Amino acid sequence: MNRLSFVAAIINASLLASQARAALQVVTTTEDLASITREVGGDKVKVESLSRGYQDPHFVEAKPSFVIKLHSADLLIVVGRELEIGWLPPLVTQARNAKVQPGGVGYLDASLHAKILDIPTGQLTRAMGDVHPQGNPHYWLDPDNGRRIADDVAKKLAALDAVNGAYYVERQAAFDKKLAEAGQRWDAMMAPYKGLKIVTYHRSWPNFTDRFGLDVIGYVEPRPGIPPTPGHTLDLIKEMKAKNVKIILVEPYFDLKTPNSIARETGAKVLVLPPSVGGEKGIDDYVELFDHDMERLVAAIKEAAAK
Amino acid sequence: MRATVRLVLFLVYLNLPWIPVAGAQTPTPTPEATAPPAPVSAPAGPGGKMFNPDIAVIGDFLAAAGRNDTAFASPSLEMHETEASFQAVVDPYARADFFLAFSNEEVGVEEGFITFTSLPASLLLKVGKMRGAFGKVNAMHNHVLPWTDRPQVVQNLLGGEEGISDAGVSLSHLFPLRLVYLEATGEVYRGESELFHAPRRGDLSYVGRLRAYRDLTESTNLDLGGSYASGHNDVGFTTQLFGFDATFRYRPLRRAIYRRAIARTELIWSRRQDSGETIRAFGGYASLEYQLARRWFVGIRADRSERADDPSLVDEGGSVLLTFWPSEFSQIRGQYRHLKYGEGETADEVLFQLLFSIGAHGAHAF
User: Fold this and answer.
1) With 0-12 CB in 10 A as exposed, 13-18 as middle and 19+ as buried, what is B246?
2) Phi-psi region of B342 (alpha: psi -120 to 50; beta: other; left: phi over 0)
3) In what order do the strands lie in the sheet with A45-49?
């Protein structure tokens, strides 16, 4: 009898525990996806990102501590387009969680309905550097893609947690409205600089520059993933001088030595711009990311023009 | 005419991305204030090879110069190994990984196994031919080693390059803890590898491993493991191995592509039974790998190991290494190795390695 009541107590406790854990456990690969998921999921979800915003998302280490997070996740949201190919697959395999396996009920590729640029056509070889055969994975840098991602996330959350379906739809609509309005504000901020020529370090910004009308004339990397070479740097300096390029955008995880020396030669300004939420202190959500980046970009353009 | 229509319909059915299908390309949406922009259906990838596994080939070219008069000397120039990998998801419950190794004289399945990813009770099951989960180096393929060779203790006590690599079943359990990654693995093998021998069906070999891992800070972590292996040796008795490994890693997240350090040691105790007596031998290595710049790495390793069948013979030495990465897909490495063999001979060698890979982008080893 005693033993029986002990067993009953354990079953009871575990039932209570599973009820207490009612919030959906969501793991995202980047902080941008985590922020969008928080906007949509509100207090019905618990969201954690594997990578940090100041980290190069191509080169995250496949730490076993991530396996622990994936093990208990109800939903895994990935950027996709092979951004995480160098580190995520073995983690998912070891997660011992059927839900988050590719194709599982708790697996969401956020890129499926986004506008993807740089999808290669024709023959593809590694002579082009570390190209992504499924297109450029930095697509979250267009706020319209943020809205598309939020839409997909809301649908997925509602599918997994039908009881709160209306809640997710409502929050997604509010976030969508907020982003659409902010998008108009950002468009207005950048309107005077349409067609401005810039250089970026890596090919991380095509969706951003496409959306806001900037013209990227070259990259500090000679090819994606290949570190700067003296020959390429000289060519770039020549081209920047010829085209009067005054802005070099650099992601926070790249070395500034080469960009700085290019800037010295050309009189351009090096602007370290975080491409992700959490890339710098104070950038805590998706809207703040654009607010911050726009402000810094406009200030840098004005400063470069005044020089 | 009808054939053309049928062909087009067929191609549309295949949904090949290079066939322009009306409506497949959605123009840039104009944002509306209330509804999200229309979803864009970008092609998911090269449709024609959708169900092909990820295929890659890695070449491992070695060269050696300097003095080594022992039987252990490696050739001057050698296409040491060509590894072809085929990896894909099998079905909603499993994935499969095949690694075929082509060396100088033979072709073999280095590994070929299925992994069941959807089991209950935090279990992961692998079935097939695998490198056993004994310590760190045994499970590594040549191209992920931080050296051009394998440490002397691996040569002396663990069966060398092949090591414990056998047909069998591996079951591992992840303990559901928040603060530490704790994984227990149990493996049963046929018992036929470089190290173990199984003339009879019942001569199985066993490997067990307990691994504990914890992040110390966001840039540093500690990885500890204890391993056990047992099987029948070449003289018909039992060999037991006990292993301990510790790895400390440092990689600052903001500078992850420029800087990292990995310090590692593995210690192995061998208990080899041989007609009534038990021969005890011990060996180990300690190594440090440090990344100087985006493409440059230096390394150092100290080796010391007794021989499994005669612990009075001790091989000891050390290596220094320099590695350059032209890109993520090739690697050039030089290693200076000094070794004093148990018989008294010394070898001073410079070893070169050129690794190059084509095909699918594999995940990086951790």
Assistant:
1) middle
2) alpha
3) A45-49, A24-28, A75-78, A107-109
What share of chain A has pLDDT > 90, as a percent? 85
Contacts of A102 in chain B (CB under 8 A): 89
> On the CB side of B235, how many CA atoms lie within 13 Å of its CA?
11
Residue A162: helix, strand or coil by DSSP? helix
Contact A36, A42 (CB under 8 A): no
Residue indicated by tokens 């000289």: A234
The pTM assigned to this predicted structure is: 0.89
Q: Is A86 on the interface with B (CB under 8 A)?
A: yes
- pLDDT the model gives residue B27: 38
Using a CB–CB cutoff of 8 Å, tell me whether A125 touches chain B: no
Q: Token match 């590594």: residue?
A: B140
DSSP single-letter state for residue A18: H
> Closest partner residue to B181 among A54, A61, A64, by Cβ?
A64
| ipTM confidence | 0.88
The residue written with tokens 């959350």 in the block is: A157
Entry field: residues in chain A: 307
Residue in this structure with the two tokens 């030089």, named with its chain if needed = B334
Helices (H) and strands (E) in chain B, counts: 2, 16
What is the distance, to the nearest Å, from the Cα of residue B229 to the centroid of all Cα atoms in its chain? 19
Contact check, Cβ <8 Å, A62/B218: no
Local confidence pLDDT in tens for the 366 residues of chain B: 444 445 444 444 444 433 333 333 343 444 444 567 877 765 555 545 578 999 999 999 999 999 999 888 999 999 999 999 999 999 999 999 999 999 988 999 999 999 999 999 999 999 999 999 999 999 999 999 999 999 999 999 999 999 999 999 999 999 989 899 999 999 999 999 999 999 999 999 999 999 999 999 999 999 999 999 999 999 999 999 999 999 999 999 999 999 999 999 999 999 999 988 999 999 999 999 999 999 999 999 999 999 999 999 999 999 999 999 998 899 999 999 999 999 999 999 999 999 999 998 877 777
CA distance linking residue B138 with residue B153, whole number of Å:
11
3-class secondary structure per residue, A50-110: CCCCCCCCCCCCCCHHHHHHHHCCCEEEECCCCCCCCCHHHHHHHCCCHHHCCCCCCEEEC
Rounded to a whole number of angstroms, the distance from the CA of A263 to the nearest CA of chain B is: 21
Distance CA B108, CA B96 (A): 17
A181 touches chain B (CB under 8 A): yes
H helical segments located in B125-274: 152-157
Instruction: Spell out which residues of chain B touch residue A177, defining contact as CB-CB under 8 Å.
Output: 33-34
| Tokens found for residue B295 | 């493409």
Q: Among B37, B45, B213, whose Cβ lies nearest the Cβ of A147? A: B37
Query: Which chain B residue is nearest to residue A95, measuring alpha carbons?
Result: B117
C-alpha to C-alpha distance for A247 and A241, rounded to whole angstroms? 12
Question: Residue B177 is which amino acid?
Answer: L
Cβ-nearest to A151 among B36, B174, B361: B36
Opening angle at CA B248, ends B243 and B250, nearest 5: 160
A184: nearest CA partner in chain B = B31
DSSP-based three-state secondary structure for B339: strand
